[in-house]
Recover the amino acids of this structure.
């Protein structure tokens, strides 16, 4: 049953302009160069590694996922290694290759730790998940135990853990004929500096709907922190919809809001509001051209935006 | 029908033509013999091929099996079942594999090898020419829509 390693290669090149912001000139930017290797070891064992090359001035690489999977049944799947936590919808559906997104970028709520995202998107540990038929519906569950947060929101603790406590996460979703909805959450504690501990509780709900050519995602989360006795509650969410007017053309729109608590002392995520709309054209099945425009307000600085992207995955 | 009843020669010719058409090769969706599905309707077949359904009712994960190069019967079957070309189906599965929800399709050198893999691997399925489907696998869907 062993097969040759399967390689996938994704990447994107972007152009962006923010109007009314002289400090941010329009620019072309290299996005993420994403390689994923999948190896089938036997009928039930497989390995997956995802390595992303990215950066602002100099390229570096991140090992985003490395997992050994044991999957004897669809209702019991065990993964050990570095994986995406089961919090929310976007984090488990799209991962790093931007070709996977209908939009040019992920919503702020679902961005990764090194992009200022507020959720614990990656961890190193053990993930048990599966899908159980319930009549004509399907119940999906996830349970995760990992190192979790470190002294700073980025990076996740890859090689050690600063305390004995582990992050514990879980999710329950119901899939009913094209509509999938559910809840997820995570609790964690870490030591930020000597004598200053962080306690984190994350709770979220998400809904994904696919009806014909319409796809919609609604996702929201509350992130509560207690840092050295100071409590902060941040919350965010977004609504995104896309419609396929042709097999290779999709129109889309998204509205998002994230509110950072003024007492928040751990996350770098700013208070943000944005709306955008755009069009995605797939000239071939493995490449996409996206053009979008909108308005955003980040930490009080607002302006219109225009973005373009070419992305691929094969 | 009355016309055919009154002309036995014409009826025989029609019967031969009908039998020949029935025996003509067509794309079929085959599964492992232990698969709990005895037959699929068009919507089930489409969901299976697009990876919208990733497990059988007995808990076995579904596993797409393909040939490495494009096979005309497979191409015709993909178009009939999902209205997508093999490269579009591959893009859909790339998405699933990247998300970690599915294993990549198993690929073999010929349609006969793909059929043999389906016969060996519980949960596996493939779209091949009906002339290659033998007793080691079960046909659960015909692209012509016949049961």
């Amino acid at each position: 049953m062993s097969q040759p390693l399967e390689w996938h290669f994704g990447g994107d090149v972007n152009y962006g302009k923010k109007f009314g912001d002289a400090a941010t000139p329009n620019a072309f930017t290299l996005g993420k160069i994403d390689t994923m290797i999948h190896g089938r070891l036997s009928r039930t064992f497989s390995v997956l590694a995802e390595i992303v090359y990215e950066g602002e001035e100099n390229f570096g690489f991140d090992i985003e996922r490395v997992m050994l999977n044991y999957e004897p049944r669809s209702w019991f799947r065990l993964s050990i290694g570095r994986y995406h936590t089961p919090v929310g919808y976007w984090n488990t559906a799209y991962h790093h290759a931007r070709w996977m997104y209908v939009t040019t970028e992920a919503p702020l709520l679902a961005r990764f730790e090194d992009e200022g995202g507020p959720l614990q998107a990656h961890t190193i540990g053990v993930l048990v998940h599966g899908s159980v038929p319930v009549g004509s519906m399907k119940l999906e569950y996830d349970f995760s135990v990992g190192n979790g947060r470190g002294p700073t929101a980025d990076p996740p603790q890859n090689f050690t853990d600063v305390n004995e406590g582990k992050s514990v996460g879980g999710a329950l979703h119901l899939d009913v004929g094209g509509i999938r909805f559910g809840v997820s959450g995570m609790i964690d504690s870490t030591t930020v500096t000597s004598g200053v501990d962080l306690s984190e509780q994350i709770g979220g709900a998400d809904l994904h709907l696919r009806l014909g050519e319409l796809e919609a995602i609604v996702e929201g989360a509350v992130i509560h922190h207690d840092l050295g006795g100071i409590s902060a509650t941040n919350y965010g969410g977004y609504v995104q919809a896309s419609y396929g007017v042709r097999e290779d053309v999709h129109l889309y729109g998204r509205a998002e809001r994230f509110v950072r608590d003024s007492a928040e002392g751990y996350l770098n995520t700013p208070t943000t509001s944005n709306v955008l709309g755009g069009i995605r054209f797939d000239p071939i099945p493995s490449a996409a051209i996206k053009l979008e425009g909108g308005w955003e307000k980040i930490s009080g600085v607002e302006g219109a935006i225009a973005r373009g992207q070419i992305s691929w995955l094969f | 029908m009355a016309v055919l009843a009154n002309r036995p020669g014409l009826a025989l010719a029609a019967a031969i033509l009908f039998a020949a058409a029935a025996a003509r090769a067509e794309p079929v969706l085959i599964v492992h013999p232990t698969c709990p599905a005895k037959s699929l309707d068009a919507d089930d077949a489409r969901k299976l091929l697009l990876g919208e359904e990733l497990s059988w009712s007995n808990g076995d994960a579904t596993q797409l099996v393909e040939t490495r190069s494009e096979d005309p019967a497979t191409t015709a079957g993909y178009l009939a079942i999902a209205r997508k070309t093999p490269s579009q189906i591959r893009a859909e599965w790339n998405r699933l594999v990247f998300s970690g929800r599915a294993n990549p399709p198993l690929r073999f050198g010929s349609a006969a090898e793909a059929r043999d893999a389906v016969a060996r691997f519980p949960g596996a399925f493939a779209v091949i020419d009906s002339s290659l489907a033998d007793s080691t696998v079960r046909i659960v869907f015909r692209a012509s829509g016949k049961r």
User: Anything to note?
Assistant: The helical segments of chain A are 90-93. Chain A touches chain B through 35 residues (CB under 8 Å). The domain at 6-313 of chain A is CATH 2.40.160.10 (Porin).
